[in-house]
Design brief:
An eight-stranded mixed sheet has the order 3-2-1-4-5-6-7-8, with helices on both faces. The radius of gyration is 18 Å and the shape is globular. By secondary structure, the chain is an alpha/beta fold. It is built from nine helices and eight strands. About 5% of the residues have low confidence. The protein has a single domain, classed as NAD(P)-binding Rossmann-like Domain (Rossmann fold, 3-Layer(aba) Sandwich).
Amino acid sequence: MSGASKSMAGKICMVTGANDGIGKATALGLANLGATVVMVCRSREQGEAALAEIKQKSGSDYVSLLLADLASQDSIRDLAENFKAQHGALHVLINNAGIISRQRLVTVDGLETQFAVNHLAPFLLTNLLLDVLKSSAPARIVTVASDMHRGANIDFDDLQSERSYGPTQVYSKTKLANVLFTYELARRLQGTKVAANCLHPGMVATKLLADAIGIPRALMSTTRLMGSSPEKGAKTSIYLATSPALEGVSGKYFIKQKAVESAKVSYDDSLASRLWKVSAELTGLFVA
C-alpha cells in the first residue's frame, strides 16, 4: 500500500453485517485504507469466507471476525464484551446490518424482527460501545439508513407491528428510527468528539433488495438491472468513516457523500427523545 492509501492505519473499525453486500464492500474498503477492521457476522461459515476474501483482496492481516446474532440482545451484549476484551479502542462503528422480512417474525426477545435488528440492535450496540468510543475520540458512528424513511411514521401504539404488518412499510419505519436515533445521539454526544451521522446508500443490488421486492437472491446477485453495485453503495459509508473533511461534523444525513435534508418528521426532537426512551426500555439498557 502507498502512504496515502494507509490513511486509516492505526484506526479500529467495526462493521456489522460484513459478510455480504454493502457491509462486505465497506469492510474491504476500510481494510484497503489500512484500518484494523472487525467484521460482525451472524454466520460463522459466511463470515469466515468473507474474512478470507477481504484479507486476500486487501493484503491486510488486520481484519478479524466476531460472531453475533443481532436479533438477540444477549448476543449483542456478548459482542460488545468480546470486542472490549480484544481491543482497547474503537474509532469507527458502522451500523450496517439490516433485514427485510416478507412476513412478521418475532425474535427470541419477543420483538418484531425488523424493528429489533434494524433499529434496536444498533441502538443497543452503540450505547454499549459508547465508553470505548469516547475514550478513543475523535471517533465516528455511521448508521446506514435509507431514503425509504420518507413518508414513514413511528406508531408507539403499534411499535411491534402486531396490528398492521407490511414488509416495506415496517422497513421504512425502522429506517426513520435510524435517522431519529442518529440525530438524538448526536445531540447527546455534543462536546465528546464522537460524531454520529447516517446515510442513504442508494438502491443497491443486494440480498436485502431481493428480499424487499420478492425475487430470488441468486437472481439479484447475477444482475445489476435493479440497483448499483455494493461497492458503489459502500462509498458514502466509507466517506463518513474516513474523510478528514468531516472532522467535527455530526447529526447529518448523507446521500452520495453530500449532507442533505432528511424527512421533516426526522427533525422532531420530542419524537426522537421518546423513541430513545422507549428503545432504552425495550433493550433494558438502564437495567442493572
